[in-house]
Amino acid sequence: MDRMTAATSSPTPAPAKRVLLAAPRGYCAGVDRAVIAVEKALEQYGAPVYVRHEIVHNKYVVKTLEKKGAIFVDETVEVPEGNIVIFSAHGVAPTVHEEARRGKLATIDATCPLVTKVHKEAVRFAKEDYDILLIGHEGHEEVIGTSGEAPDHIQLVDGPGDVENVEVRDPDKVVWLSQTTLSVDETMETVGALKERFPNLLSPPSDDICYATQNRQTAVKQMGAEADLVIVVGSKNSSNSVRLVEVALGAGARDAHLVDYAEEIDEAWLEGVTTVGVTSGASVPEILVEGVLEWLAARGFGDVEVIRAAEESITFSLPKELRRDLRTEAAELAAGPADGDASQG
Ligand code: 10E
Ligand code: SF4
């Protein structure tokens, strides 16, 4: 460019600031069902209702349900005899069901049906005397529950680096299963390494990493490649939310952070940024994403483009114990007041 042109041309406009909003994001069918189960139980039986473990790994959800009368406990033995306890969406080991029976507790099992599916696979392969390699994160509630279905047959494989530690009885009778919320790519890497050691390794009958985990990762991959910064809304103990940060970085995002609330976003993250990707984990209510979008709009990022990777329409019916009681109540209401109630009117 010569001097004259430079002197007369208008300054280059700043690149437009924009937000890429991932879809699908937020609540999956299993989380929706579990949260509604706690709400309905509170309406049906009155507070308090006990919940073993965070119903889903989200601070806001837990706080909101606590305000409505839910009491979260770490172990079933903490629930006073005769009360109701709800098991979280992550699932529990059979020993937890036994503890509840011993404690004379009524239970509502809000385990996601897709986690139950993995439990059933574990039981089936253990019955057939397979060595089961469960790919997952040590200490995670779901892994503890699944392992508890067949503790003598299951060993945990926590990522590709753990493959060398695996020891099996018969290398021709080994199957892998997994936690539902893992990184798809990292899991395939782990499976590849396992197959090198055990060429006859059997795979699960259908994907253990659930549809919601896969779809949220596909969406974040699509936008991660274009984003300077990706903000994932989710809690620190939410495995699937943490995976979204990793997937975003792996897809090429320059920077990515996990936040529970908009207030946790650091203004410094926006330096030199024109494209911000936004998504949320499967346990995150949309109101928290809306807060982040408002926060960004107030800083010039008001232009929002949705990046849709998949349509989701899956829903699950409420836990059977709750459906039974809701049906009974509806039938009683339809039948009119019972004899004993008539005098109260
Ligand atoms: O830590 P996770 O991602 O397993 O749990 P979450 O509560 O954040 O999301 C819901 C996922 C469940 C219940 C596990 N399948
Ligand atoms: Fe179920 Fe998947 Fe949601 Fe977990 S993330 S609760 S397995 S739908």
TrEMBL record:
Q: Which reaction does it catalyse?
A: dimethylallyl diphosphate + 2 oxidized [2Fe-2S]-[ferredoxin] + H2O = (2E)-4-hydroxy-3-methylbut-2-enyl diphosphate + 2 reduced [2Fe-2S]-[ferredoxin] + 2 H(+); isopentenyl diphosphate + 2 oxidized [2Fe-2S]-[ferredoxin] + H2O = (2E)-4-hydroxy-3-methylbut-2-enyl diphosphate + 2 reduced [2Fe-2S]-[ferredoxin] + 2 H(+)
- Record GO biological process: dimethylallyl diphosphate biosynthetic process; isopentenyl diphosphate biosynthetic process, methylerythritol 4-phosphate pathway; terpenoid biosynthetic process
Q: Which UniProt keywords are listed?
A: 4Fe-4S, Iron, Iron-sulfur, Isoprene biosynthesis, Metal-binding, Oxidoreductase
- List positions binding dimethylallyl diphosphate: H57, H90, H140, S238, S239, N240, S283
For [4Fe-4S] cluster, which residues are the binding ones? C28, C112, C210
Pathway participation: Isoprenoid biosynthesis; isopentenyl diphosphate biosynthesis via DXP pathway; isopentenyl diphosphate from 1-deoxy-D-xylulose 5-phosphate: step 6/6; Isoprenoid biosynthesis; dimethylallyl diphosphate biosynthesis; dimethylallyl diphosphate from (2E)-4-hydroxy-3-methylbutenyl diphosphate: step 1/1
**UniProt keyword Metal-binding, yes or no:** yes
Tell me the CDD domains matching this sequence: lytB_ispH
Q: Where is the active site?
A: E142 (proton donor)
User: Could you give a GO molecular-function term held by this entry?
Assistant: 4 iron, 4 sulfur cluster binding
The organism sits in which domain of life? Bacteria
Task: Give the cofactors, semicolon-separated.
Answer: [4Fe-4S] cluster
Do you know which Gene3D superfamilies this protein is assigned to? 3.40.50.11270, 4-hydroxy-3-methylbut-2-enyl diphosphate reductase, catalytic domain (3.40.1010.20)
EC nos: 1.17.7.4
Residues reported to bind isopentenyl diphosphate:
H57, H90, H140, S238, S239, N240, S283
Cofactor descriptive note: Binds 1 [4Fe-4S] cluster per subunit.
Positions with a binding annotation for (2E)-4-hydroxy-3-methylbut-2-enyl diphosphate: H57, H90, H140, T180, S238, S239, N240, S283
Similarity remark: Belongs to the IspH family.
What does the record give as the function of this protein? Catalyzes the conversion of 1-hydroxy-2-methyl-2-(E)-butenyl 4-diphosphate (HMBPP) into a mixture of isopentenyl diphosphate (IPP) and dimethylallyl diphosphate (DMAPP). Acts in the terminal step of the DOXP/MEP pathway for isoprenoid precursor biosynthesis.
- The protein in question is named 4-hydroxy-3-methylbut-2-enyl diphosphate reductase
Question: Source species, please?
Answer: Streptomyces mashuensis
